[in-house]
Amino acid sequence: MKQVILGETAGFCFGVRRAVDLAEETAKSEGICATLGPIIHNRHVVERLERLGVSIIHTPEEAVPGSKVIIRSHGVGRETLEILAKQGVQVVDATCPDVKKIHRIIEAADQAGRQVVIVGEREHPEVVAAANWCKNPFVVETAQDLEVWLFDGNRQETPLSVVFQTTGDQENMERCRKILKKWCTSADFFDTICRATSKRQGEAARLASFCDAMVVIGGTNSANSQRLAEICQRHGAHVCFIEDASGLRADEFDEYDTVGIIAGASTPAWIIKEVYQTMRDEIVTNTEETLPTTPTETQEDAVLQPAPEVVKEIVAEADSAAAVPEETAVPAEPADGESAMEDESFEAMLEKSIKTLHTGEKVVGIVAAITPTEISVELGTKHSGYIPIDELTDDPEVSVEDLIQVGGEVEAYVMRVNDVEGTVMLSKKRLDTVKYWDEIDQARDKRIVVEGIITEENKGGLVAKVKGVRVFIPASQTGVPKDEPMSHLLRQKVKLRITEVNQSRRRVVGSIRMVSGEERREKAEKTWNEIEVGKRYTGKVKSLTSYGAFVDIGGVDGMVHVSELSWSRIKSPADVVKVGDEIDVYILSFDKEKGKISLGHKDPDLNPWKTFTDQYEKGSVAKVRIVKLMPFGAFAEIVPGVDGLIHISQIADRRIGRPNEFLTEGQEIDVQIIDIDYDKKNISLSIRALVEEPKEAPPADEFEESAGGEDEIVYDTDVNKPVYDDEEVSEEVGEAVAEEIALETAEKAVEEVVAEEIVEAAEEAVEEAAEEPEA
Ligand code: F3S
User: Given a cut of 90, is residue 196 above it in pLDDT?
Assistant: First the structure.
């Protein structure tokens, strides 16, 4: 043997790689997982997956409820999916998109009342599964069987939909096509042999036509590998069909000068490499020419690079001699009188299926399936389209389902065409980006507000993604006050106006501030138009001062005075609210010309004075809490927000020097309400009234009799001041008490004046602040 030629198409096909990758991914997740049947026809791969924890079940009934079941690339029938659903398992669908396409064709044909014909091996799992997607399929293996069936049942006029097993034989398909075209009046013909298979078979034929022997690597139960062996035999080559390098015999190739190697779609790269190395190192003898470049991949599942230059040259030369044309989908010219079929649909279908795709082209396809890693797209050509999940959109807020649905149309941009695998990698987000540049341009010209997601923060400002286009927002246009961090805007959706577009420099500038300013002005106008006293709003606290809180009620800030924030006594607005709080407010008053709004926050229904008057009246007994001790008495809280005064003379049934001799702050005690001034909201309380024995007024003579005795204090309950029976003492004490009261009254008056002055000063400050222009 002098030369070994490795086929370009050797190695996993797209569908098999995808299935194996999905199985490996699933094995990494938690819980039980199994494949329904061996994932591919290769025991090495199956054993490896078993070591990773992926077991094999053979029927859907064997599935453990709650487990994950991986559907292999052959696909399954509708019934199987229904059983799995009943079993409560999670299905990981690794059905090859090309196989899925056949299921959909069959389902649609069945619903349209057409007779489905499947050309393929009756017992093959792919064919068995496909047949389950319609009611009465007819399965034939060869073109000859098809012809017999047509005439036996006089079916030439039956509406037929004919599909082919994805790994079917191209020559057989061509014969079927001719028969259908010649005899049938209503046959829809679907070339469903997958592109990877077409390529592989074409290459096998070409190699076999000039090689003396062919090594076909693949599982003995693999239909596509068997088919390759048959094709090689048909083209006159000696065939050595092996599963791996251990199947090679050193003497088998002695008499052959040129040996080709081809592998089935389920054969991992490392097995092909091993066979190639073994042949080169151990079997090749008397080598006169160097062998083609050795594959460089060393990892188990590395993708074998396309065949080396030498191979390409040889294959090119062999092209003319190849019995099977490369583009097997190209229709043969119909012979005269053959055109019994509907030419139009036939030609249209063929035209579509042989369409070539180019990188950068815009395509429209139908979403065939959605998996966690990709979206399969049916393009109506022999290629299997797919959009990797990260090529769908840049918007993290949008879910896959928001953008696309199975069965719906999707527009995408062709990123890469792999003719060997028959796949096309697509990107929706890149197409959208191109489309959106125009929209961005228009947004600037027409001053349209756009939405974007903040993706970056840098020295100069922020970067937003607006429909996939980067828009720079200078810090001054972010709406964030100077020197404050902007990071809280990251990953937030924002509205912005486009201010500058330079397509050649790929530069777009925007402003959030312009939009927020406009929105605020619009809101303010609406608020002023609808404002009225008593109207309620939910506003946001914008800032706090010592005298109140400024609240945004819709583009306009109003002020809640500290006294209007709470019914309870508070020292500062910060005791009740903080910046950013949303609070309910109502309009107390407003001045549209000056732009001033006074707001109330206290709920009138919770007015403590009302609570007090609902519960108590003069003479009622209440449990109170001492809140403040003064020289002239003690203030006590009767209900939250309402205090009364226990005058020093009403604290005990005897004279005391200071209230703290008897009371402490925080102490709870029973008192009697002895007076209520409803106008001034003043309440007089008495402890003494409860501890003193009620006395009947002594008769006038008794009163006189007691005169001259011990210094006895008699209280005039109406005036709340002590009255002494001894005139001298009475006068003396009366003067002292009067002095004390006068002093306290003066102190109180001073306090009130000071308080009033503070309030006035505060109000003036508020007014000044309110006159400041809005931000
Ligand atoms: Fe799919 Fe074709 Fe492979 S049908 S599994 S890509 S052989």
Answer: no
| Beta strand 374-378 pairing with 362-370 | antiparallel
Q: What is the pLDDT of residues 373-393, one digit of tens each?
A: 788 888 877 677 889 888 888
Nearest atom in ligand 1 to the alpha carbon of residue 421 is 6
pLDDT at 457 over 70: yes
| Ligand 1, pocket-test mutation among 21, 42, 165, 167, most atoms within 8 A of CB | 167
Does the pLDDT at position 296 exceed 60? no
With left for phi above 0 and alpha for psi between -120 and 50, is residue 113 left, alpha or beta?
Answer: left
Looking at the CA of residue 96, tell me the nearest atom of ligand 1: 1
- 26: which residues sit within 8 A by CB, 6+ positions away? 33, 54, 68, 70, 92
- Nearest Cα to Cα of residue 524 among 595, 473, 583: 595
Alpha carbon distance 455, 394 (integer Å):
10
Cα-flanking dihedrals φ and ψ of residue 48, to 5°? -65, -45
* 3-state DSSP assignment of residue 293: coil
Q: Average pLDDT, stretch 187-215?
A: 89
pLDDT for 495 beyond 50: yes
For residues 374 and 360, give the distance between their C-alpha atoms in angstroms, rounded to a whole number. 19
Residues 303, 306, 311, 315, Cα dihedral to 10°: 120
Do 212 and 257 contact (CB within 8 A), yes or no?
A: yes
For the annotated catalytic residues, the residue numbers are: 126
- Of 217, 208, 262, give the one whose Cα is nearest residue 238: 208
Distance 150 CA to ligand 1 centre (A): 29
Residues 277, 297: Cα–Cα separation, whole Å: 12
pLDDT, average across residues 57-74: 92
- Could you tell me the distance, in angstroms and rounded to a whole number, from the CA of residue 96 to the centre of ligand 1? 6
Q: Is 196 in the pocket of ligand 1 (CB under 6 A)?
A: yes
State the distance from the centre of ligand 1 to the C-alpha of 227, rounded, in angstroms.
14
Ligand 1 midpoint to CA 60 (Å): 23
Question: In the 8-state DSSP scheme, what is residue 329?
Answer: T
DSSP assignment string, 98-146: HHHHHHHHHHHHHHTTPEEEEES-TT-HHHHHHHTTSSS-EEESSHHHH
How far from 681 is each of 179, 608, 642, 759, CA to CA, in Å? 107, 11, 9, 19
Nearest Cα residue to atom 1 of ligand 1: 15
By CB atoms closer than 10 A (0-12, 13-18, 19+), residue 18 is: buried
pLDDT, averaged across the chain:
80
Quick one: which H or E segment has residue 71? strand 68-71
What pLDDT score does 755 carry?
53
| Other CB atoms within 10 A of residue 66 CB | 11
pTM of full prediction above 0.85: no
3-state helix, strand, coil in the chain (%, to 5): 35, 25, 40
- Whether the predicted pLDDT of 732 surpasses 80: no
CA distance 495 to 477: 12
Confidence bin at 759 (pLDDT 50/70/90): low
Residue whose CA is closest, atom 6 of ligand 1?
Answer: 15
Question: For ligand 1, what atom is nearest to the CA of residue 15?
Answer: 5
DSSP of 366-413: EEEEE-SSEEEEE-SSSSEEEEEGGGT-S-TT--HHHH--TTSEEEEE
- State how far the Cα of 458 lies from the Cα of 362, in Å rounded to an integer: 35
**Do 683 and 675 form a contact (C-beta atoms < 8 A)?**
yes
